[in-house]
Amino acid sequence: MGDFSPCSHLTVDEIKQIGRLLGLPSELVDKVPSDGLCGKTDEDNLGFTYAELDRYIRTGEIDNLEHKELIDHKHKVNLFKLQLMPAFNPGLGTAID
To answer: What pLDDT is attached to residue 88?
Structure first.
């Protein structure tokens, strides 16, 4: 859903808690996230665990400084994804933010 993201400000752990409250099967709630293509988990691809990320997001605390640098770098290079996509308006001949 590109125009509506009701879970975008929730961590993985918070989403799992919601799943448990809703009574979803643990096979779904606790399923290890993966892209299903390369045979590796999302955590393998990221280089840190969701538990580390969730803690860092919610408290600012992280034990592994290498993981902190990696998370900070990934956040910085992906900030553009949080912005509205520029659109061309042919009537004005300029991009609109």
So the answer is: 82
